[in-house]
Design a protein that fits this description.
alpha/beta, Rossmann fold, 2 domains, 6-stranded mixed beta sheet, 4-stranded antiparallel beta sheet
Length: 244
Amino acid sequence: MSLLDVRAVSKNYGTLTALSSVDMVVATREFHGLIGPNGSGKSTMLKCLAGAEIPSAGRIHLAGRDITTLSPQERSRAGLSLKFQITSIFPELAVYDNMLIALQARQSIAGLLRSSSRDVLHAKVTDSLDRFLLRDRQYDMAGELSHGQQQWLEIAMALALEPRLLLLDEPTAGMSPQERRATGKLLQPVRQQCSLLIVEHDLDFIKDICDFLTVLDQGQVVASGPVTEVQNDARVKEVYLANV
């Protein structure tokens, strides 16, 4: 079943065409990779999905709802969550409190005013930190975590919104090989919760974790389909693998 349906999306900046009639479909519980050389349009596509940019043409549907012109906040309420490459955690707060704040975003104003949410959400906070190997760091300042651990914390915070679709922008950038492998393992259980659309440069990582790939070059779709099919596509080898 289709969860995200992108149809003929284009984005122009004056005379520059960043995206040209892009089609892409992400199914429910699917891990979908969006790849391509620098300047291919990946970041622009992500911004159009997140609401940071509005397409010049085309439509974007999430779970059957047209979100093409919705604000980022409205898209979040519709089931979209995003983790950008640069972390946006609160470095001077404890790891526990970062996770708590993320979960409180789903609480009512009344609950927050009663200051009852900390007790109510304690189990969810610790469970989320357990899932991402951060339980033993819960009382440390988030800024003291390693780069990879900060990325894991932000992914956990993005999942706290219980999205239907989570967008990840280069989640392994700057990680050590060990952290990249660990990230792949930590993301696998997310399949039971939501779909993932991942923009990533690490081909080994994305081939291991994703079911489908969409390849962009110069704002256009070069190939889209199962990982094994796309990685053997002659056009992909020509325009992507030779230029990354």
